[in-house]
Amino acid sequence: MEFRQLNTFITVAKLNNFTKAATFLGYSQSAVTSQIQLLEKELNVQLFERLGKSIFLTSEGEKFLVYAKQIVKLCDEAKITAATTDELKGTVTIGASESLCAVRLPRLFKEYHDRYPAVKMVLKMGNCNASQTALRENQIDAAFVISRKFHIPEFITELELPEPVVLLAFPGHPLTFKDFVHPKDIVEHTIILSQKGCSYRNIFEKRMEDAGLTPKSIIEADSIQAVKQLTISGLGITLLPRIAVEDELNRKQLIELNWGGPSFDLITQMLYHKDKWISPPLKAFIALTKEMLEH
Question: Average pLDDT of 264-287?
Answer without folding.
Answer: 91
